[in-house]
Amino acid sequence: MQFEKLTIATKNALRQGRFYIELLGFPSLKSNSEELIIQAGATQLRFSSAETHPVYHFAFLIPTGSLEASIDFVESKGIELLPLHGDKIIHFDSGRSIYFYDPDGNIAEFIERPKLNYPGKETFNISDVIRINEIGHPVSHALNVSDELISNHGIRPINPKAFRENFCWVGDHEGAIIVVEKGRHWLPTEIPSEYNDFELEYAENNTHYKFKCVSGDIISNQ
Fold first, then answer.
1. Residue 214, CB-side half-sphere exposure with 13 Å CA sphere
2. Both ends of the chain: CA-CA distance in Å?
3. How far apart are CA 137 and CA 41, in angstroms?
4. 40 by DSSP, 3-state: which?
5. 3-class DSSP state for residue 214?
6. What is the largest CA-CA distance in the chain?
7. Strand, coil or helix: what is 202?
8. CB-based burial of residue 108 (10 Å sphere; 0-12 exposed, 13-18 middle, 19+ buried)?
9. Which pLDDT tens digit goes with each residue over 10-28?
10. Hey, CA dihedral for 150, 177, 181, 50, is it positive or negative?
11. pTM
12. d(CA 192, CA 147)
């Protein structure tokens, strides 16, 4: 699946704008006190002001081979990385990642996925971000929600047999919804996940989908 537009809540759109536009250098599509829209590669990422703001987890896909350079880039901006067991780089079967907080306390991630057929490179700039690759989705019943995403929303996960009661990676290397049981900690922190409302537009097999999540439930499919 390929993320086209992702909308999440923010406590302070102007502060997020200073971080994502002025500090990191993402292109700005709109920035005011109510809304921030940046272009993250092929994905529009929108922050909409809200009275309540949960902690989100989302990932930016970057070229294979650029992760070490992305560390230098992030740290040169004065942003501290979130290590796991003392290691800045976290390894998965499908790639490698680094994590950091944004001003809202969201857990942002840069991830490279070698199995994708994108040109690799050893340098990094924010213009190298390919698209949003993940969004975390805490729910009450991870397996039930994952089944709904597969049955009703066109998502074809790589390995549904690996789904667990508290963690389901629903998608593929291009993009995935990380469906977790509410309360499970967000890697690499000890922060428990909580319901986080969002809207997502994406493409799967050249078909476009859109849905909205509120309090852990999928409430629309447009």
1. 4
2. 17
3. 22
4. strand
5. strand
6. 44
7. strand
8. buried
9. 999 999 999 999 999 999 9
10. negative
11. 0.96
12. 23
